[in-house]
Each structure stands twice: as structure tokens, then as C-alpha cells.
Amino acid sequence: MAEAGINVYEIRPGIIETDMTGPVKAKYDKLILEDGITPIRRWGQPIDVAKAVVAIATDLLPFSTGQVIHVDGGFHLRRL
Known about the structure:
Elements: E1 9-13, H1 25-34, H2 46-57, E2 67-71
Parallel strand pairs: 1-2
């Protein structure tokens, strides 16, 4: 697709605070805030995902393609 001038990205949201995650809020509050399940100790917000989309849509990554963009507070990182 890059040869046609189309860059491709995959956005992988993590634990995002939405109406859908409302029923598990107490469980994930503990995992995020106390247990540190993510290095960035806060819930992801819809605006966090939106900013990744904006970066792609406004061509802020013109020399990147085929990339996974994790919007997950570092949840995907392997820890020792």
C-alpha cells in the first residue's frame, strides 16, 4: 500500500475508561492504581486513542507504515 501512498497502522487500545468498562471499574482501579498493571498508573481515556488517530489522519507519521501503535499505558511492555 505504501507504493500507492497509503500508510497502514494498527491502533491497539488498552484499558480505556468508557461506559463499557464501567462494570469492572473497581477491579481495574485496583489493578492500575495499586498493583501497577500498567507503567502509566491511570485509566486510558477515549481522548488518548483519539490523539493517536489524529496523528495518523494528519500525516504526522509520514515515514512510518505497517506499525502497531499501542495506546495502553505500557501494558504491552514485558517486565523483568
